[in-house]
């Protein structure tokens, strides 16, 4: 099973990486990406692991970082829709499919 990133989720991920790199250094930014990749591998093996939300979406938190990934299963694998900071408006990214 594979995954794809919504173009806005890619921007979410890049923004978070840049924030960590600027504020905490390259090492923390790298750990953020490593955690993201670890969670995506879990999705590929266990696509229903996240907590169901709405519109067949699921949400799953990153460990050690205040971010969650919102995704859904599609015919080709997993579609990551949002990489959202946990203090953002819960509706952030609801328009992505």
Structure description:
The model has no long low-confidence stretch (mean pLDDT 96). The protein has helices at residues 7-24, 26-45; strands at residues 2-5, 51-52, 58-61, 67-74, 77-85. It is globular and about 35 Å long. The chain contains 2 helices and 5 strands. The chain has one domain: RelE-like (YaeB-like fold, 2-Layer Sandwich). The protein is of the alpha+beta class and 97 residues long. The chain is 39% helix and 28% strand. It has a 5-stranded mixed β-sheet. The longest helix has 20 residues, at 26-45.
What's the gist of this structure?
The chain has 97 residues and is α+β, with helices and mostly antiparallel strands. It has a single domain, classed as RelE-like (YaeB-like fold).
User: What is the N-to-C succession of helices and strands?
Assistant: EHHEEEE
DSSP summary: helix tally: 2
Shape descriptor reads globular
Strand order, sheet with most strands: 1-5-4-3-2
Question: Which CATH architecture would you pick?
Answer: 2-Layer Sandwich
Give helix % range: 25-40%
Name of the CATH first level: Alpha Beta
What would the average pLDDT be, to the nearest integer?
Answer: 96
Low-confidence stretches: none
The proportion of residues in beta strands is 25-35%
**Rg:** 13 Å
Q: How many individual domains?
A: 1
Distance between the termini: 19 Å
- Give the beta-strand count: 5
CATH topology: YaeB-like fold
Q: How many strands, which pairing sense, and closed or not: the largest β-sheet?
A: 5 strands, mixed
The class by helix and strand makeup works out as alpha+beta
Name given to the CATH homologous superfamily: RelE-like
């Amino acid at each position: 099973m594979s995954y794809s990133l919504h173009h806005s989720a890619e921007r979410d991920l890049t923004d978070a990486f840049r924030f960590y790199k600027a504020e905490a250094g390259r090492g923390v930014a790298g750990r953020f990406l490593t955690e993201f990749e670890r969670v995506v591998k879990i999705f590929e093996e266990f696509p229903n692991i996240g907590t169901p939300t709405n519109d067949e979406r699921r949400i799953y938190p990153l460990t050690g970082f205040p971010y969650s990934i919102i995704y859904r299963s599609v015919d080709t694998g997993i579609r990551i829709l949002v990489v959202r900071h946990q203090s953002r408006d819960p509706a952030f990214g609801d328009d992505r499919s």
